[in-house]
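Can anyone check this?
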Amino acid sequence: MDEARASNFPTLELPHQAGRTQRMLHHLGDPSGYCAAALERRAARLFWHLSVCKIHPETLHRRVRIALHGTSDPQPCWARLPQEDVVRRMILGALAGLAATMAMTGAMRQLQALLNERSRYPLPPREIVDHLDMHGDERQARTNTLLAHFGFGAITGAVFAILPRRRGSGTLYGLGVWAASYLGWIPAARILAPAWRHPAQRNLLMIAVHMVWGTALAKSLNELEAAESEAFGRPSDAKVSALERRERGPGR
């Protein structure tokens, strides 16, 4: 919407709603990144919608939160869970992260064979270990690479488990981990150059395997949660059957 159209909107026609709407604007987006004029135009458009559509500011705020986070509760999802439930979810997420990293590692091995000869040098997990000088000999370097690779997969899997999930969120999370790593903290720590300086084929490989990892992470976590309640769970009022007592053995 251009400035001419934005200037036609009333700016402060609902003074009794101003305080709530300002708080809502603060939650919807940090206004510090906008110049004063842009923020005024944004507020004008919002006031116009509130006055024309007769939507109360708190109602609009609640609808936006439900659309973005699946709930109107302003607290982060992990803050609404009991501490023991957070720990349980993180353990399941770490296990799912290990399983997903196994699938990712297989995809890395298969796709590396498709690279041209010039690009077929060790993939970034080994390059990171080499940069950190974590190895003594070649055998130790390979072991350290696997430990670091699977350890990072478990940690990021544990974080995923306490986030809100929707269809496709695993794949998006995998892409986010790739971007945060190879465009974020890894070049910021001067471990590797940023991804745009890597060969295109290797970038495509790493993006693809992170998508595999994210998809496998979500599937593995769903399976673990289902197995926890179905295959390994027991209703609180269930009694031990005769067959189970026999299977347990005498005195059990």
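Reply from J.R.: I decoded it. The CA atoms of residues 64 and 72 lie 8 Å apart.
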